[in-house]
Design goal:
The protein has 223 residues and is mostly helical. Helices cover 31% and strands 8% of the residues.
Length: 223
């Protein structure tokens, strides 16, 4: 009468076989890696051929200066005649191409689509000069321009009424004044700019413009 073998014997026999398979696979991939790194692999041979046909020498006549002066000359096929644009109609004084309210209302309301930015296509673009508001004057030089803006350049008082409680803009005679303080700049605009400068490298030339957009109250543009 045959006796049934012990299941533990089969597990003992499988142990050395599994170890041998693992060692063999590790050795195979190790040798494969050495072969690929030796320069005889297909990828390495392609890279060698590309390197042979590539000129990696540094050019000595590179010029990093701007080339927008008139000395550079113009191609012969460029029309020398300057194209003149006529002034637009006065109704376009406040026209902003990609934020035209009348045009935006023509888009669907689903998913607030009409509130997205929709720049006009080529056939709808204006080919005229947007006129300045009546009485427009040259902006004040810095640092006065930090605190004052001529009223004629933005002749609308609505913000001074709607945001009067927050006291961040006031209408005084023929200018708008930004007194600082209020809810937006409790310590004034200077302290706020210094706070931005503490986290943004504004003084080393890496960043030229910083735009801080608030929650619909205002936005600060540093240039």
């Amino acid at each position: 009468m045959a006796t049934k073998g012990n299941p533990g014997d089969n597990r003992n026999n499988k142990g050395p076989v599994s170890i041998f398979i693992v060692v063999a696979l590790c050795g195979f991939f190790y040798i494969l890696g050495l072969w690929q790194r030796s320069g005889f692999g297909k990828g390495d041979s392609i890279a060698v051929e590309i390197t042979k046909h590539t000129d990696c020498s540094v050019l000595s006549d590179l010029n990093y200066e701007t080339h927008h002066d008139n000395d550079a000359g113009t191609p012969d096929d460029v029309d020398d005649q300057v194209k003149e644009f006529k002034p637009c109609d006065d109704s376009y004084i406040d026209y902003t191409p990609c934020h035209d309210q009348a045009r935006a209302m023509m888009f669907p309301r689903e998913n607030m689509n009409y509130r997205e930015r929709h720049c006009p296509p080529e056939e709808e673009k204006l080919h005229c000069l947007i006129a300045t508001p009546r009485g427009y004057s040259t902006p004040f030089p810095w640092p006065k321009s930090r605190d004052y803006v001529p009223f004629a350049n933005a002749p609308y008082k609505s913000l001074t009424v709607e945001k009067a409680v927050q006291n961040w803009i006031q209408y005084e005679g023929n200018v708008f004044r930004f007194p600082g303080g209020g809810t937006q700049f409790p310590q004034g605009a200077d302290a706020y700019i210094n706070q931005l400068a503490s986290v943004i490298p504004l003084d080393n030339g890496m960043i030229r413009t910083a735009l801080d957009t608030g929650c619909g109250v205002s936005q600060i543009l540093l240039t």
